[in-house]
Amino acid sequence: MDVDAQKLFTLVDAAHNQPITHQPSDSYRQALLAAAIDLNNNVSPQQVTIQLYQAYYRNYMVPMTLPRQHRDLYQYVHTQLQRLTRKEQRHMALGYGLIATHLTFGPLN
Length: 109
Fold this sequence. Notes:
Keywords: Bacteriocin immunity. By secondary structure, the protein is mostly helical.
């Protein structure tokens, strides 16, 4: 595990161990566990960061109401996603658009 993966794993572990209230925590906690497993299986930290961001988005997480460890993780995820190149951002947006189109209008084939 490289340095970025180790730092992300430490933040995920701290957030998973911290109880969370007033948030839809079941699927979020499952996403944290899945992120830790992916990091142990040498999935790229960038991919895990994207999955965590999607978990925040799906669960309507409000970062300012989260406990300290969860805010630290959210800030790290947010900072890492700001560092993506334009090409990586386009690739992510295209993938999201294709998925959303499929869910909205059905298969294209």
